[in-house]
């Protein structure tokens, strides 16, 4: 990579330019989606700045409230949630918002209402804030076709109905990964320009991977197929090398690595959490959407993750996502277990 030449390039593909180019492919487009996305990007930039100076600004630590999931809220959680809600409502393009931090869905008032519903986790992995580990924002977007009064049914749809999904990771660099339904692209924030620049065009997840990612502390509570797959990763019987375990405990960071390097990310059901722990709408669906659009698969242990039909906005599900061939192996193990029963 010629960094000197890069420094003098003026044809940088910014996220705004990229989305406008995509929009031009649809002559009937009114630009609503582009406006919505620009507000999400602004929210990501704001949170990135806040994360970077959190230690100095005393934003780290508990805010003294507990969110709907029973997790004690951190100040950055609260701030990020407010930032995204304000950014999304002020876009004038949203109608229903679902946040991990709020017990109830937010129905946008009619004067500011648009045709998009956004589900999001404003700051995923927030328990890692104090130790400087990568954290991120996850979002998914649904579009409502007709102009009815907004209801929960507008967001209680299978993930395959999403029109776009993405995440923004706040780590050594600020990276935004986005899919608008065709392909997956990664953008990195250039602090000197204040712009997200296309750095990872058309991301494709490798068909096989050498990494597995799971919280092995829960191993004693796993079901047989999960235990069998992890055993195979560590002690392969075909003479191949063992896979490496990498688990950060921040979903955005773990999925980002899986997307780029291949392998599997798993948060299976276990005896203590028979429905898994990750939330369907704003964790499982957006990440599954991205993985599938990059050529991978996402599976719940019973079905394709994006076919799930949620009945509650904070519903949970197990998930196995990653390289196509690796998830095929997991599906085969579950199918074999089903035949035994």
TrEMBL record:
Cofactor or coenzyme needed: Mg(2+)
Name this protein carries in UniProt: Fructose-1,6-bisphosphatase, cytosolic
InterPro entries recorded: FBPase_C_dom (IPR044015), FBPase_class-1 (IPR000146), FBPase_N (IPR033391), FBPtase (IPR028343), Fructose_bisphosphatase_AS (IPR020548)
Reaction it catalyzes: beta-D-fructose 1,6-bisphosphate + H2O = beta-D-fructose 6-phosphate + phosphate
EC number, as in UniProt: 3.1.3.11
UniProt organism field: Hibiscus sabdariffa
PANTHER family, per database record: FRUCTOSE-1,6-BISPHOSPHATASE, CYTOSOLIC, FRUCTOSE-1,6-BISPHOSPHATASE-RELATED
Family: Belongs to the FBPase class 1 family.
Database matches in SUPFAM superfamilies: Carbohydrate phosphatase (SSF56655)
Domain of life: Eukaryota
Segments forming a coiled coil: none
Compartment(s) where it occurs, according to its Swiss-Prot or TrEMBL record: Cytoplasm
Pfam families in alphabetical order: FBPase, FBPase_C
Domain Fructose-1-6-bisphosphatase class I N-terminal: residue ranges: 13-201
Gene3D superfamilies, per database record: 3.40.190.80, Fructose-1,6-Bisphosphatase, subunit A, domain 1
Domain Fructose-1-6-bisphosphatase class 1 C-terminal: 205-334
UniProt KW keywords: Carbohydrate metabolism, Cytoplasm, Hydrolase, Magnesium, Metal-binding
Keyword Cell cycle: no
């Amino acid at each position: 990579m010629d960094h000197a030449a890069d420094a003098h390039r003026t044809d940088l593909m910014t996220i705004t330019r990229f989305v406008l180019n995509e929009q031009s492919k649809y002559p009937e487009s009114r630009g609503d989606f582009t406006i919505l996305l620009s507000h999400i990007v602004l929210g990501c930039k704001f949170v990135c700045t806040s994360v970077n100076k959190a230690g100095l600004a005393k934003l780290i630590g508990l805010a003294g409230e507990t969110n709907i999931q029973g997790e004690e809220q951190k100040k950055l959680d609260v701030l990020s949630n407010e930032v995204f809600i304000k950014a999304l409502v002020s876009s004038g393009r949203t109608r229903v918002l679902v946040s991990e931090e709020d017990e109830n869905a937010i129905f946008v008032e009619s004067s500011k209402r648009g045709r998009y519903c956004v589900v999001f986790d404003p700051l995923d992995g927030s328990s890692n804030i104090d130790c400087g580990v990568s954290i991120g924002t996850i979002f998914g977007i649904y579009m409502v076709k007709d102009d009815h009064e907004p209801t929960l049914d507008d967001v209680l749809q299978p993930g395959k109905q999403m029109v776009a999904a993405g995440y923004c990771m706040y780590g050594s660099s600020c990276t935004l990964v986005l899919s608008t339904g065709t392909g997956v692209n990664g953008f990195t924030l250039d602090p000197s320009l204040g712009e997200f620049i296309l750095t990872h065009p058309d991301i494709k997840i490798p068909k096989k991977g050498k990494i597995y990612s799971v919280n092995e502390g829960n191993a004693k509570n796993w079901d047989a197929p999960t235990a069998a797959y992890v055993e195979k990763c560590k002690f392969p019987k075909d003479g191949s090398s063992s896979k490496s375990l990498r688990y950060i405990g921040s979903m955005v960071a773990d999925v980002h690595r899986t997307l780029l390097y291949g392998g599997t990310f798993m948060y299976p059901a276990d005896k203590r959490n028979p429905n898994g722990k990750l939330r369907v709408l704003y964790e499982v669906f957006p990440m599954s959407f991205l993985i599938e659009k990059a050529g991978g698969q996402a599976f719940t242990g019973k079905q394709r993750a994006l076919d799930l039909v949620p009945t509650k906005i904070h519903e949970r599900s197990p998930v196995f996502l990653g390289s196509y061939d690796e998830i095929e192996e997991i599906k085969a193990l579950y199918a074999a277990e089903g035949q035994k029963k």
